[in-house]
Design brief:
The chain contains 13 helices and twelve strands. With 341 residues, it is an alpha/beta fold. The chain has a domain of 158 residues: 3-Layer(aba) Sandwich (L-fuculose-1-phosphate Aldolase). The strands form three sheets. Strands 8-7-6-5-9-12-11-10 form an eight-stranded mixed β-sheet, sandwiched between helices. Strands 1-3 form a two-stranded parallel ribbon. The radius of gyration is 21 Å and the shape is globular. The two termini are 16 Å apart. It binds zinc ion (ZN).
Length: 341
């Protein structure tokens, strides 16, 4: 069930459109209905998949089609297909899982379709969406998880591409709720940094987006609790590299934990050297201002054996989101109960 909240209704009203089309599987909260009625926006029911039925009043279809067929768009489509193949070959995605997107212009993004294996996509499978996730061009319906990608783009303007997948080792940390302990391998420290665990929220939901958005500026790779991994980069390949480095790190830790390790990791002052290198490369890291002694204060092996307290989860959503979140959660539970009955 795709619930349209007050916030989403307000964003739609701001476009100046006077008709909101509600597709199959979409539900409007009472406050969203109030926003529409106070702006004289007509609510129309249509057949179609959830979340894809909103019209885009401001986009000129011919211009969008031209943009969608531009040389740059075609190059990115090919790159997305290539990275999709690499995700599948490395077993980072299974079934129809995972998704990829790339910023094309300030407010348009190319993204992978829903219900397609990422290993076998063709450039014509790729769609164009706006910053609200509304489809502007392309025949295949866009991924439902685009909302999480868009949250990363909003949270960090430097993000040019986003890759989301379910690689087994990193996802194992995500389902265990364990943040991979730092200070063990320079590759991760320099090119990725701290990899936090975001609390579980329904994939593609507004709550998921609200959790991820504030984390983007400080983290290029985030474990999504009970779900998978999402990474951003300055190109599709760069975002994919963050995914590879994150999963390789988690995999190595799982193997090393079986060797009864006694060595406690990279010394704190050497960690500062790594962070210096990273800073010169212009990569974000929330640890730049930490004292050396605080960089490696956790014994990584104690974290992995469950003896030390786990690393903290990501930031909580802002207070403003709470009431709408609650509405959505209650609605989801009601719908679930109804469908079971
Ligand atoms: Zn997913």
């Amino acid at each position: 069930m795709n619930v349209v909240t007050q916030k989403e209704a307000e964003a739609f009203v701001a476009t100046g459109a006077k008709e909101y089309r509600v597709g199959t599987g979409m539900l409007l909260t009472p406050s969203a209905r109030d926003v529409f009625s106070s702006h004289q926006v007509k609510i129309v029911s249509v057949e179609g998949p959830s979340g894809s039925a909103s019209p885009v009043p401001s986009a000129d279809p011919a211009k969008m089609e031209e943009l969608f067929r531009s040389e740059e768009a075609e190059r990115i489509k090919r790159e997305i297909c290539d990275i999709g193949r690499r995700l599948w070959q490395r077993e980072y995605v299974d079934g129809n899982g995972g998704n990829i997107s790339c910023r094309l212009t300030e407010n348009t993004f190319l993204c992978t379709p829903t219900r397609v294996s990422k290993g076998f996509m063709k450039p014509e499978s790729i769609s164009l969406v706006d910053g609200e996730g509304r489809q502007l061009a392309g025949t295949a319906a866009r991924t439902s998880e685009i909302t999480t990608h868009l949250a990363l783009y909003r949270g960090e303007p430097k993000a040019r591409a986003v890759v989301h997948a379910h690689p087994v080792h990193a996802t194992a940390f995500a389902i265990a709720g364990v943040e991979p302990p730092p200070c063990l391998i320079p590759e991760l420290e320099v090119f990725v940094g701290r990899v936090p665990v975001a609390p579980y929220k329904t994939p593609g939901s507004a709550e998921m987006a609200a959790i991820i958005e504030p984390m983007a500026a400080q983290h290029q790779s985030i474990l999504m609790g009970n779900h998978g991994v999402i990474c951003w980069g300055d190109s599709v390949e760069d975002a994919y590299f963050k995914m590879e480095i994150t999963d390789a790190y988690c995999r190595t830790l799982i193997v090393a934990a079986h060797l009864n390790p006694s060595h406690s990791g990279i010394p704190a002052e050497k960690m500062q050297d790594l962070l210096e290198i990273k800073k010169r490369m212009g990569l974000p890291d929330p640890r730049y201002n930490l004292e050396a002694v605080r960089l490696c204060e956790i014994d990584p092996w104690e974290v992995l054996s469950g003896k030390a307290s786990r690393c903290s989860p990501g930031p909580a959503p802002g207070l403003a989101d709470v009431s709408e979140d609650l509405v959505r959660e209650i609605t989801d539970q009601v719908m679930k109960a109804l469908s079971q009955g």
